[in-house]
Amino acid sequence: MISIQEIIHRFEVGEGRRYIPIGTGLLLFIAILAIYNLRESTGYASIEAMDVGQIARNIEQGEGFTTNFIRPLSLAMIGEQNKTEIDDPMRIKGLHPDISNAPLYPYLLAGAMKVLPFDFTIPALRSKNFRIFQPEVLVGIVNQCLFILCAVVMFFIAKRLFDESIAYFAVAIFLGTDLMWRFSFSGLSTNLAMLFVLILVALLLKLESGHPCEDYEEKDNPNRIDRGVTHYIWMGAICGILLGALMMTRYAFICLLVPTILFAIFYLPGKRIVTILPMLFAVVIIVSPWLKRNHDLSGHVLGTAGYAYISESSRYGGTNLERSLQVDIGAPSLREMIRSLLTNGGDILENEIPKLGGSWMSALFLAGLLVPFSNRTLNRLRNYTLLSLLTLGITQALIKTHLSDHSQDINSENLIVLMLPMVYFFGAGLFFLLLDQLRLNFNGAQFYVSVLVAVLSCLPLIFRVLPPRESPVAYPPYSPPLIQRVGGWFSDNELMMSDMPWALGWYADQKCVWVTRNLEPDFFTINDQHKSINGLYLTPITTDGRFVSDMVRDSGWAWGRLHMDITLRKNLPKGFPLLHVDDGFMPDQLVLTDWPRWNSSGN
């Protein structure tokens, strides 16, 4: 049995000394994790997070992949596909199928809801001093687990490509990146997709290097193991499964198929076909059932998401496309696509890539492009990273919608953030290369300098944790207790309309249609021909609109004019079915119902 003295000796002068800084770093990370969760956990501010959250709850409750956030465009597409049905062609009277989101992340959250103690009710006692919605905390913990798994995979990749010290340095900066912590509490699928990308990179490295422990420079290198065709078939198929999983996490990520195929073409001579064909076959097998499901429901393999690339065209703009009951949309002109690419692509090149992750590592990565590596594998992986950034950047520029404006940086359309781990360990590699050139003659110089740089890189996270503390509630427009109160006035089979249906679906579990692009005829088409709308809930999204550009000139902003008419003139449009106004919400919010529900609810 080892004595206490021997244990102490090992940690003082023996092999245990190397674990002291590792243990210290782990304790520091756990402390930051606890402090961040207690102080900086915030409510959702993005549309997508609430959208996938309410879908996950529907799945967990046995209602299938259905949604309470009903887009008029979804109603139009499903109605057109099922126009022979007489009773309910738009699928609005019962459970409305979701045709806007990829399925993998909602199903993951649904599994977490089965296991973890999710509580979606906000007690009346907590309403006055409300701080944060408990399910959002649990979803944040799930994403933090994915975040930590990303760091683990990143460490092993960096260790294999460089060495242990660079791996620890890169992972420390990654774990101290404020942007990634904000993504963890955003409720988005970014951490899951990043984990898939890191595993994909690890597989590509194994494919390229031949032997997992050897770098080879010549084909006749005796240390290289030339694996058989079966190995490449299986590895290609697994890469295809990961690419399919990425698409089922977020449709736009299928663009990574392009750099992955090019990697195989350029760097797997003699094994290209046996790698690429199984890869493509696996992708098709993974995504085909879901795409067929979308096509059967809506006539489009991606549902409403298939029109993202024209949502910012000159014919639409903002949220007008998704709030439209128009089905005959057509395709954008080449001029509009070039305009989107140049406008949004310029912003990505100027602002997003240089400050990717908010750390100096992105600058070091860009500077390192001028420094060739002697290791062929490093050069090839850096080329793959560059090609992936280019592909993701072009895709991001083409599909940018109102979601990017609604929640800056932290949104599902921030695609280039997936390459952050690779940017970090290449930036760390250049940093250590430069550090080796310095003549530092005191003991442990490199260690202390690297710790100092790591701390400086993590300052944004440190400053966020320090006082003053920001409000955890994203108001305006989201006040979860108030949203639950309004949603509680309506039964499950009744229908609301709002300018934030995603919030009513998530916080109140209430079926809600997004306010239509026009009051007439779209609102009356839904209300008179398909299902009665029992309540209208307008928030600062509408009431804080700009007077001239939004409410006077924009023909699609009739709801802002409706709010002004009721607030200033006490007038309702002729024939409008919702005649009862709760004055307690005015002027920043407006609630109209078919009868005074607040009187019978006790609120």
Task: Please summarize what this structure is.
The protein has 603 residues and is mainly alpha-helical. The chain contains 27 helices and 8 strands. The chain is globular.
Principal-axes geometry comes out as: globular
Q: What is the gyration radius calculated from CA atoms?
A: 27 Å
The overall number of domains is: 3
Distance between the termini: 69 Å
Structural class: mainly alpha
In the sheet with the most strands, the strands line up as: 2-5-4-6-8-7
Question: Taking all residues together, what is the mean pLDDT?
Answer: 85
Low-confidence parts, pLDDT < 50 over ≥5 residues?
211-223
DSSP, total strands: 8
As a percent range, the share of helical residues equals: 55-70%
Please outline the major beta sheet. Answer: 6 strands, mixed
Helical stretch count?
27
The proportion of strand residues reads: under 5%
Describe the 3D structure.
By secondary structure, the protein is mainly α. The chain has three domains: 4-39; 134-465, no CATH class; 475-603, no CATH class. It has 27 helices and eight strands. The protein has helices at 4-12, 19-39, 47-60, 72-81, 104-115, 124-127, 134-161, 164-175, 178-184, 190-209, 229-249, 257-267, 272-298, 334-352, 361-368, 376-399, 402-406, 420-437, 445-457, 459-465, 480-487, 501-507, 519-529, 540-543, 547-552, 558-569, 597-601, and strands at residues 66-67, 69-70, 96-97, 496-498, 512-514, 535-538, 580-581, 590-593. The strands form two sheets. It has a six-stranded mixed beta sheet. A two-stranded antiparallel ribbon has the order 1-3. Helix 7 crosses helix 9 (178-184), helix 12 (257-267) packs antiparallel against helix 13 (272-298) and helix 14 (334-352) crosses helix 16 (376-399). It is globular. The model is unreliable at 211-223 (pLDDT under 50).
